[in-house]
Amino acid sequence: MTQSLSKEPFPLISTVALVPEILLPDSRQRPVELVKTSDFSAWDGFCVPLTVLLPTISPLESRGNRPLEFTFYHQIYTLVYFHVEEYSSGRALLEDINDPKESPPEWLPQDGLGRGTFFEAIHSRGLEQMFEVFERLSKKAANAMGTKYEKFGDLCAIDGSLIDATLSMEWADYTSTTNKAKVHLSLDLNSGLPRKIILTEGKAPERPVAEELLECNQTGVFDRGYQEHSRFDSWADEGKYFVCRVKSNAQKTIVRELPIPDSSNVIFFAEVYLGDEQHRTKNSLRLVGYKVGKKLFWFATNRKDLSATEIAIIYHLRWEVEKFFAWWKRHLNVYHLIARSPYGLMMQLLAGLITYLLLVLYFYWRYNEYPSLLLLRQLRRDIRRERAIRSAISITLTKWMLLLIFTTKRRGRWKKQTAIIAIF
Q1: Residue 368 domain flag
Q2: Please, what is the average pLDDT of the chain?
Q3: Angle at 192 between CA 297 and CA 201, to 5 degrees
Q4: E strand or H helix at 155, and its extent?
Q5: Which residue, among 104, 204, 219, 214, has the nearest Cα to 161 in the 3D structure?
Q6: Which domain CATH number covers 219?
Q7: Which of 29, 186, 286, 327 is the most exposed place for a label (fewest CB within 10 A)?
Q8: Under a CB-based contact definition with an 8 Å cutoff, are residues 193 and 142 in contact?
Q9: Strand, coil or helix: what is 152?
Q10: DSSP secondary structure of 341-400
Q11: 299 in Cβ contact with 226 (< 8 Å)
């Protein structure tokens, strides 16, 4: 039997007119001026993009004859909540959700969540839907952020980051004594948002993965570890562009020198072939020598429409991906593993990226700012306060309901009486 997401019980926002324009499908866009930040609680407002997007995602199928109790809705919201609150472990998350004294946030399992159910779902189902949510949410967020560097076209920084793995994760081979996995990311430099992700073992080469991340008519920005002359040629043949830092001892054959701008740090600008006779590029490239203090940087590109200064500026933007990795790992706890298999780890990484995209949209909508630690702490305080209020109201109503159902005063004495009272 299949479990359709569209048929799952889901608390949709009651009034679509309240949803910001940047979060809605194009067919239902409304002016942003109609939106008031007070119309949503912190958790509701933060989850609006998922509220709107999830009913349109491909359905998750049950593998047996029974419908799914822990649905994909529960799964994604639980993982997002894990990253927002930065729990130290999956066990800490489950203890909080199952705490009888507090009600879980909306859209998480309200009747408790078993350890086996939670971890089985992470390791075995929902990855296709998670990818779909990430890709569509990334495009929606990029459209909302706009284009910072329109003159430079479609820019993306591509880099990898190692994840410490346990010894039981044999697939994450790195050295004889340690295991590590590696996440490869494509970051849209015009919006500052992640676009694509690939997970490999720690010692996997980065250059072949970069070819999968770089798209046609896109300019990839790379560090010198990605320098490979044959790949430069294949990218040019495929209509892909690049700005890559190259090693200072790389051999070059000058075709023609190009004008160097006055009063700049550019000391070399020419059209060249890179490499020796056996490993020389087939297509000519533009090479820039850029001096910062006493250090000299070399940048190669197949973009012939850029000046030397613009090429240096584009490479400088590559540091955005380093800043993203640092913020993402430090403040969303994405590298604290709650899964050990490649499938489960990818689920966790995608949930971390989705959480970051939700933060970008929420802070942009409510504060017109990019994510910061100060705003993240404020969001966490607001969510916890709302949860405490909700729990207090729920406990109070429950006490009154029990009092009204089981007791009533008749003829001067208390007597039990059964009744059905619609109190909620």
Answers
A1: yes
A2: 82
A3: 75
A4: strand 155-165
A5: 204
A6: 3.90.350.10
A7: 29
A8: yes
A9: helix
A10: SHHHHHHHHHHHHHHHHHHHHHHHHHTSS---HHHHHHHHHHHHHHHHHHHHHHHHHHHH
A11: no
Looking at the DSSP assignment, which residues form a beta bridge with residue 173?
179
Residue partners of 148: CB distance under 8 A and separation at least 6? 189, 190, 191, 192
Buried b (16+ CB within 10 A) or exposed e, 331-341: bbbbbbbbbbe
Distance CA(367)–CA(176), nearest Å, equals 49
Does residue 308 contact residue 260 with C-beta atoms inside 8 Å? yes
Residue 369 φ/ψ, nearest 5 degrees: -135, 165
**From CA 301, how far away is CA 287, in angstroms rounded?**
7
| Judgement on whether residues 227 and 318 belong to the same structural domain of the protein | yes
For residue 344, what pLDDT band results from cuts at 50, 70 and 90?
very high
Residues 6 or more apart in contact with residue 346 via CB below 8 angstroms:
127, 197, 199
Q: Residue 194: which domain range?
A: 154-326
Alpha carbons 78 and 48: distance in angstroms, whole number: 15
Tallying the residues shown for the chain, one arrives at: 424
Nearest to 382 by CA among 404, 367, 394: 367
Place of tokens 């993306």: 156
φ, ψ (nearest 5 deg) of residue 301? -150, 155
Rounded CA-CA distance 167/163 in Å is: 13
The pLDDT score that the predictor gives to residue 351 is 95
- Judge whether 38 lies within some domain: yes
105 and 164 assigned to the same domain: no
Phi/psi at 222 (nearest 5 deg)?
-130, 155
Model pLDDT for residues 84-124, shown as the tens digit of each residue: 998 988 999 999 999 888 888 888 898 889 999 999 999 99
The pLDDT tens digits for 170-204 are 999 898 889 999 999 999 999 999 999 999 999 98
Q: Identity (one letter) of the amino acid at 3?
A: Q
One DSSP character per residue, 274-300 reads: ES-SSS--SS-EEEEEEEETTEEEEEE
Find how far residue 122's CA is from the centre of its chain.
Answer: 17
* Per-residue tokens: 43: 């958790």
Looking at the 3D structure of the chain, how many domains does it have? 2
- Quickly tell me which residue has 């927002």 as its tokens: 84
Would you say 119 and 108 are in contact if contact means Cβ atoms under 8 Å apart? no
Spatial distance between the Cα atoms of 360 and 356, rounded to a whole number of angstroms: 6
Q: In this structure, are 98 and 193 located in the same domain?
A: no
Question: What whole-number distance in Å separates Cα of residue 164 and Cα of residue 345?
Answer: 12
